[in-house]
Amino acid sequence: MSVLNRIIKTASRFLVNRAARAEESGRLTDLGLWGLDVNANGRLSVNGQDAVELVERFGSPLLVVNRKKLIEDARRALAAFNCAPVGSRILYSYKTNCIPGILKELHGAGLGAEVISPYELWLAERLGVPGEMTIYNGVAKTPESIEAALRRNILSINIDSAEEVETILTIADKLRIQGRVGIRLGFSAKSQFGLDVHGNEAMKVCERIAALKGRLEFSCIHFNVTSNSRWASTHKHYAGRAVEFMAEMKAKTGLVAQYLDIGGGFGVETTKNMSGAEYGMYRLFGCLPSPPKVADFPPIESFFNEIIEAIKAKCSELQLETPKIIIEPGRLITSKSEFLLTKVNTIKTRPDGTTYAMTGAGRLSMTFPCDFEYHAAFVADRPEARPERLYNVMGRVCTSADWMFKNRLLPKLNAGDVLAVMDAGAYFSSYSSNFAFQRPAIVMVSETGNASVLRAQESFEHLVAMDNI
Q: Model-level pTM?
């Protein structure tokens, strides 16, 4: 080994060990954050149901939904949003977790639907979501889906490109109905989403809509600019800019938005996006980022109130009536109520000391968010055990890219142990893949501990059901 390689290896080992110490000192240990606890056998428990027994019953890997936590978080968000003007709405982001059994619970609790695809639009109708509680976002909307949205008279089809205006108009005229539309504001020149505010694209579209009075009804100004945000500052800043656009739009076109849709991106205290530096260190050296600090995260009640008060103040300053507010949370509602269980199939230790824990779930099949987010993990067999060894936790697809965690400090693992990964309610199932293996079952555990299947494990027959073989 060359001198340079030895230096790099020594530096890498130092950085990894330093990251492990930071992870150990700041790791999240309170299972109550996810509505979980430890049973009399010392194992992870959800509403009295033993997590290890769930794996024995339904197989590994397995996604588990805690219904009690799901409903609690939905109701808390609704109560916190009472500070918004009368008629404001919470529309759940379908792309975050599009499992029908979960969506039905959320709609039953009073949340509507924010959809981005023809499938999601169809599913919202199938689940009985009223048009008044549905918004259609997304790029390159198909004519067929636009027609379906118009027939349902949904709250707003949010226009993402100038061409969409003419497509919607043509279909609305054919149906002889007045379509309700909004526009998505594009604040970033580096993003493909929305109508550019700086180059006057957004205002030109508003002028076109104003000229179509009686054929299109203007409903909504929309933006979405952040993800897993831990503070209200980003939403406040862009909401202020959106209100400024609304004032200019009214002056130039006469259009008045009934709704200001400030999108989603509201974070939770138990996970975080990696910063650019953290992501670079993780990918280059395998240095896991430090855990989020729960105490630094404001209660969602104050988070919402701060944003709403800023909107009201800006509207007052510009002499505008405060519009009804729409938010499109996903992670905030479902992240903490779902977790992933996966067996450790085998342990491999290499001559250089690197230890691999081979499991049934990796980033190419189930845990893609672990690529760029911090997620807490426990050994379900003994969740109170202290970490003592670094593991590269891998999936089962035959590529070194199918990892779950790099250099994760965990209790000593044995083949047959069950690993529990928290905050699987945001994007785990959405990004899941049946690359070489079928996707797992999803079960919901009720408040009384009864487990029911929301989605069965895929069969081999299902994987080839659309093929001509």
A: 0.95
